[in-house]
Amino acid sequence: MAINLGEILGGMMPKKTRKRRMTVKEALKVLQAEEAEGMVEMEAVTREALEKAEQEGIIFLDELDKIAAAGGGGQGPDVSREGVQRDLLPIVEGSAVQTKYGTIRTDHILFIAAGAFHKAKPSDLVPELQGRFPLRVELQPLSAEDLARILVEPEHSLVRQYQALMGTEGVEVTFLDEAVGEIAAMAARMNQEMEDIGARRLHTIMGILLEEVSFSAPEMKGLTVTVDVPFVKNRLDRLVSDTDVRKYLI
Q1: Taking the model in full, what pTM does it have?
Q2: Quick one: 111 and 155 in the same domain?
């Protein structure tokens, strides 16, 4: 039987306490949380979590192309890449993995891998690892419509982030739908003409678009800035059309 000395000696050692003033409403929440934590049987929670991880777990392996040996040279960095693949292979195939909460079998865990295979190819992976990913899906580049949705639909979209950021300075920023479409169209054009970095292009464009407003925000407290199509074109047209300028930007 495993003995946790921390639990045995924990009650003997004096604990550090810290006083904090709060309202009765706040104190009630703290006490409820403490009582709820005391009622939870952690061993049962750990057992259920291990079982769910084994039976319903999903592991996503991003940037798998980074460990693909392009050309299969078999020397230099390609040897290290193949070594990483060999280390991943038993986990993907199904094995027992030791964690701080216990042993997890990976036999029934779903593995999903992704990568930008424009230089290396999926066939550059070791054959055994290729066989563990039988289904392959090729994604299409993001369109202007996709980029426009990314700008506004997520809970923490870039539009909401910049509105909240300017709001801390007392500046209200409003984005018109037409302006969002124009920003997305410019990002899609730059992705087509330069390296396609997907939605990351939006970070650079939004930063340049609101650079002047961000810099002057402390002096603009109480004002409202409306981002419309002329506002966007005035600040981004030169960036999109001037190849000498944009090659230094992401």
Answers
A1: 0.64
A2: no
Region of residue 170 (phi > 0: left; psi between -120 and 50: alpha; otherwise: beta): left
- pLDDT digit string (tens) for 205-226? 898 888 888 888 888 888 888 8
| Measured distance CA(170)–CA(219) in Å, rounded | 10
Q: Dihedrals φ, ψ of 109, to 5°?
A: -80, 140
Which position has the higher pLDDT, 72 or 173? 173
pLDDT tens-digit readout, 85-127: 888 889 998 899 988 888 999 999 999 998 888 777 888 888 8
Q: Which range of residues forms the domain containing residue 238? A: 144-246
Does residue 162 sit within a domain? Answer: yes
Q: Which tokens hold the place of 36? A: 């709820």
Q: Strand (E) positions, the chain?
A: 58-61, 96-99, 102-105, 110-113, 172-175, 224-227
- Cα separation, 185 vs 206, whole angstroms: 13
Q: CA 118 to CA 87: how far, in whole Å?
A: 24
Please give the C-alpha separations between residue 7 and each of 11, 42, 83, 119, 124, in angstroms, as whole numbers. Answer: 7, 13, 41, 53, 50
